[in-house]
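User: Predict structure, ligand magnesium ion.
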Amino acid sequence: MQQNPSSEPIVSLRDVQKSFGPLRVLDGVSFAVQRGEVLALIGRSGSGKSTALRCIDRFEKVDGGEIVVCGHRVDRPDVDLRALRQDVGIVFQSYNLFPHLTIEQNITLAPCAVKGMATAQARDLARKVLAQVGLEEKLHAYPEQLSGGQQQRAAIARSLAMQPKVMLFDEITSALDPELTSEVLKVIEQLAADGMTMVMVTHEMGFAKGIADRIVFMHRGKVHETGPASILTSPTTPELTQFVGTGNLKS
Amino acid sequence: MSIQLDFPAVLERWPSFLAGAALTLELAFFATVLGALIGTLAAVGRGSRSAAIAGACKVYVEAIRNTPLLVQIFLVYFGLASLGLKLSAFTVAVAALTINVGAYTAEIMRAGFEAIPRGQIEAAEGLALSRLQIYWHIILLPAIEKVYPALTSQFVLLMLASSVCSQISAEELTAVANYIQSDTYRAFETYIIVAVLYIILSLVMRAGFWGLGLVLFPRRRRLGTPL
Ligand SMILES: Nc1ncnc2c1ncn2[C@@H]1O[C@H](COP(=O)(O)OP(=O)(O)OP(=O)(O)O)[C@@H](O)[C@H]1O
Ligand SMILES: [Mg+2]
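Assistant: Predicted complex:
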């Protein structure tokens, strides 16, 4: 039976519940991301953005609700984690490059170990993804020899080498100064232009406004307001109004 | 009061000294290789999700760390004998030293594993690497690098401690010294020579570990910085 793949969302959360002990962090969160869409998760510190993102790649187990990612039922205990994580790329705030490996080895490791790719082919791939993030010349450097912005771009390249269907970013520029931030954001813009499906937690409101197809504003574990990027300039709830009003909306 | 030292009378026996030193080094080599292997497995085992495996590894480590080496050697020696196994003193010595150093290695490696930032492991999990692949590619080498000085000391200590294997008449350096001093009645000279030989063996081992480090940690070789 032929199915139209574009009709299925790449990521969908329905009524997701998650508590850490007595603390209810996600309280009925629902949203969906279509193929090629860029979704920005915004909200105050502690509102549950990172937790929601981590649930998508099953770094957190949900207590209730349904999460479907590229056809994987992530909420089920029997989900095939390794298959899920081949379809999903995740990049963290703290880069987490492997310090004992060169940038090339960081990138080729997973394609070779997980997908059984031949070394020569993986090396070509490493060159390709590094070119995508503008770091070809750092192929043989070690992570500590790179600036923060370069490390973050290398981490993005490492993730891209697995050819994920969706990329998750958790405040990937928060540890960087403005100049390095903009070099990383350029890479993300290019990815968006190439049609990559992305979910990003970000505090860069100006950037979110420019790139996101949809904004999800989280407040106290709930999706408090959602809509196109224009909701950032004309919010309807007082909470989002206050959030974008408190200097969060940089140009 | 004067001390009369007669080294030539003792040094005459140099082939025996050399053979003893060689056997000590051999004991240390096999026990180091096997002990590193067992110790690393025990350290991994202590982090196992299976309570039985984790518990067994913990019992092993604690039992060894809280009993004297000499008693362990006798236990292996008489234990294997009572099972009807006729093994050479050398084999028994290697087995006992391996069991001993394996437990200490396990503790050191556990500290190394715990020093790996959680984020490294999450990044690897996010790339779909399996648990085994994560240990092998992400955790093992950085963990070893972090505790390498402690491991080196532990294995040198093992080589020195192997002198108690003279008790089960393994013909290692101390056992050889015991024969020579009772033959020559030159105990002081004999043990001075033995002490010097142990120092040389220690230096040889440390040089070996330094060389091995160059091979194991190419990043450090290139950048010279600790991880
Ligand atoms: N592993 C955990 N154990 C216990 N509590 C946790 C855990 N992870 C997160 N929390 C709590 O859950 C709440 C939501 O955390 P989360 O990291 O999702 O917030 P966030 O929206 O990403 O905030 P920030 O903008 O500061 O990153 C916080 O109160 C946090 O302290
Ligand atoms: Mg967060």
